[in-house]
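Problem 12. The chain below contains 230 residues. Write out its predicted structure in token notation.
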Amino acid sequence: MTTVTPTTPDDERCACGKRAVDLCLCPELTPARTRLGLLVLQHPQEQDVELGTARLLTAQVEGAVLRVGLSWPNMAKALGRPADPRRWGVLHMGSKEDVARVPRGGIAVVDRKGAPLPDSDAVLADLEGLVLLDGTWSQAKTLWWRNAWLLKLRRVVIHPDFRSAYGNVRKEPRRESVSTLEAGAFALGRLEGDPGLQGRMLKPFDTLLDRWQKRRRPARPVPPPATPAP
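Solution.
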């Protein structure tokens, strides 16, 4: 989720049409085969944001689905195939109190009051997939309230043990807030039992931010040639 200004219409775009060519990482992304399915619901105003991370996430997970819009009648329509909502989890924003109930670096399924379920680990192990909402904080809330079927999914709360790589690029509503890619990589790394998965999925994000920072740095002025001594 980010509030970075979108690219201008005059930018030369990459083959996927969503980034300027110099920021495109599409050819460098390799999808990983995961046990869990992945569905990302993206707010329409987020799809052309220059430093958005939803595509960096879905392009790295085999079979992942990215849907752009505001509402879908049910999960099957959004996913494009039948699915049991009770065996899918949605990464829930939760309150500060909800996140605080989950150990730092942990992940849990919570009830509607934000309390971790006693059988949280067993529920997580039984999940078939995860749903993430992509947009600013307010846009994500819009997606949540406009898709009532999300209430049928398991509410999954994460407590990241790191700060977002966005740094000062944007102002987050809370310290533990991270990008869509970072949240998805964190959750998948824990649930897939692959300690290195999170790091591998975040490398392209570091590359994107580095290229973006270099693009914004003003070019050093070229000094005029020295005048030869008489």
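Discussion. The longest strand covers residues 37-42. Students who got a different answer should revisit the alignment rule from Section 12.3.
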